[in-house]
Amino acid sequence: MIIVMKPQASEQSIRTVTGYIEEHGLQVHLSRGEEVTIIGIVGDKTKLSTENLIIFKDVDRIVPVTESYKLANKKFHPNPTTVKVGNTSIGPGSLTIMAGPCAVESKEQLLTIAREVRKAGATILRGGAYKPRTSPYSFQGLEEEGLKYMQEAKEATGLSTICEVVSLEAIEAAVKYVDMIQIGARNMQNFILLKEAGQSGLPVLLKRGLCATIDEWLNAAEYIIAEGNPNVVLCERGIRTFETATRNTLDLSAVPVLRRMTHLPIIVDPSHSTGSYRYVPPMAKAAVACDADGLMIEVHNDPAHALSDGPQSLNFTKFAALTEELKPFCDLMGRSFP
Ligand code: PEP
Ligand code: MN
């Protein structure tokens, strides 16, 4: 439930209400807008007689929040959140492009890709060092060595960096080398990992699970935020349907649906969702047109010889052409292009 205070409510009135809630063993989440302050209540509401709250000074109204996620809920936090990642940020007003190889394969490969994607407008370098592959016989990633290359690429280019984590050990290593961690689709409901990510202190990119509903996805985000880490970005990366012409089905309608439900930034991954480099440009443009805050795109120096996800990777020429084509879409949507 949330308590909406009257415009111009005094600090004293706000403190009285929050104190009353906390006395009953519940947590308070304060959201201060330009006009009004909203007090969100998290915890077991049976401990509190809520009807009394309406008679407190400067309380305007009490609104029940029926969704099980609270801290990720737009009702708790009406203004959009901007998440800082290294020396850039993801949120309203700009389009963030994360680009790079599916897997970090070598230092030279990563540095070459980092320079090219930066030139074309990316501000965050992606690169997998721990690869949760469908087959146990596929390349599994360079692990900590790959993370060190990510740090070197950051130092060489100034790009911020993101890397997927698959275990507590991977999180502990990632905090030493990268700016943001990614929870992959296959781990979206790995609740232990979500809690660890919440305690990592790094911003988290939470990919949608292959079969997850939007409600389950937002509850997964809630796990991270409930650990005290509000810096969560959601990434739509396609869901499994009966269609086999694409690797997954990109659910672009999730973007406007999420806008209504949550204040968290939303980005779209046209690479993993389509599985083919041919479909990446049109879906990237469509993602900007439906107001996504950013894109995650796989780029490789030599897609034909990539150790992972070559068929969906753009080469440098195609990536540069795409970012050029995205500019008018950004203008249309009122977003600056880096
Ligand atoms: C990835 O981004 O490298 C990845 C494995 O993506 P997903 O979890 O969306 O499949
Ligand atoms: Mn990949």
Gap between N and C termini: 39 Å
Please give the share of residues in helix.
25-40%
Strand order of the largest sheet: 7-8-9-10-11-12-13-14
The CATH superfamily name of the largest domain is Aldolase class I
Q: What's the order of the H and E elements?
A: EHEEEEEEHEHEHEHEHEHEHHEH
CATH topology of the largest domain: TIM Barrel
Low-confidence stretches: none
**What is the averaged pLDDT score?**
96
Backbone structural class = alpha/beta
Integer-rounded radius of gyration: 21 Å
**Approximate strand percentage:** 15-25%
Bound molecules: phosphoenolpyruvate, manganese (II) ion
Q: Using DSSP, what is the number of strands?
A: 14
Features:
binds manganese (II) ion; 8-stranded parallel barrel; 4-stranded antiparallel beta sheet; Alpha-Beta Plaits; 10 helices; 14 strands; about 350 residues; 2 domains; binds phosphoenolpyruvate
How would you describe this protein?
This protein has 338 residues and is of the alpha/beta class. The protein folds into two domains: 2-63, Phospho-2-dehydro-3-deoxyheptonate aldolase, domain 1 (Alpha-Beta Plaits, 2-Layer Sandwich), CATH 3.30.70; 83-333, TIM Barrel. It contains ten helices and 14 strands. It has helices spanning 11-23, 107-119, 144-157, 168-177, 191-199, 214-226, 254-261, 270-274, 280-289, 316-333; strands spanning 2-5, 27-32, 37-42, 59-63, 83-85, 88-90, 96-100, 124-126, 160-164, 180-183, 204-207, 232-236, 266-268, 294-298. An eight-stranded parallel beta barrel has the order 7-8-9-10-11-12-13-14, surrounded by seven helices. Strands 2-3-1-4 form a four-stranded antiparallel β-sheet, covered by helices on one side. A two-stranded antiparallel sheet has the order 5-6. Helix 3 links the parallel strand 8 (124-126) and strand 9 (160-164). The longest helix is centred in the C-terminal third of the chain and has 18 residues, at 316-333. The protein is elongated, with a radius of gyration of 21 Å. The mean pLDDT is 96. Manganese (II) ion binds at residues 102, 272, 298, 308-309.
